[in-house]
Amino acid sequence: MQPRLTTTVSILSLSTVTGITTVITGIIPQLKRTFSTVPTTMIEWVVTIANCSALITLLLNPRLTNRWGLRPVVISGLLISAIMGLIPAITTNFSIIMLSRLGLGLGVGLFSPHAISLLTHSFTGDLRARLLGYQTGLSALGNAILLGLAGILIGLSWHAVFWLYGLLIMIAVGVACFVPEPAEPATTTATNQSTTEKTRLPRRQWTLLGLTFMTYLLIWGVQLKLPSYFSTRHFGNAATINLTLAAMNIGGLLAGLTFGYLYRYLHRFTLTLGYAGAAISVLVLCVVSPQCDRSNQCRRVL
Domains of the chain by range and CATH? Predict the structure, then answer.
């Protein structure tokens, strides 16, 4: 028997907020102006430091779920993330903001891996396979919607963007009310397998892991520098920056939806096509930006 619709919606809602740490990326120029004495690198760390602290609770997650259960860990992570995410909305103390972002990451590390594990343990058969396929797309779509909302809220103030973290409380309530504790948490299975089987990855897999690491490093670099780039080049206001970041996530959603179709015909060249498309986009940006500079200079002269 498959779970009720409310259970399905509550579990899938986790996928829409797994990337919620990046929702403030578009306010980096505003933070620079507000905290003018703080180095730019530290301002950018406000966005990325949450992902660093999330590694701590990601590593501890198997032990925590084995002891307390998957459902309590997910709810606790959502509530911790919500509280810590909301703190910058009511303060202008940079140290407190940075500490709250560290706490946000700890909460995200508690709930984000279970966006998949809850699907695997709550559904079976074709429905489970279908929902697992939707999970990546929902993550991109959720991030795009959050960035779009941030672009609207930034018109009020950069503080207002942090109110988006209040959505995590609603998701925590949904999980508490409609998601039962799985009979056998995914982390328990993974732990048992890791203790009984010790395998070594072939050299080719290590190469792919390194390539994946570099890919995410480049993606994060682009996302972090894009707001400052738009600001210095006068490409648009803060809302335009957020809409651009949202469009990047919509592009990720479309890529996920078309991946199966492309892979059927291109096979191993699919990855090459993806990197080639990214490289062409960067080259177009390099070509367009000098023209924008010249047009802006002409406007200033006129």
Answer: 5-266 (1.20.1250.20)
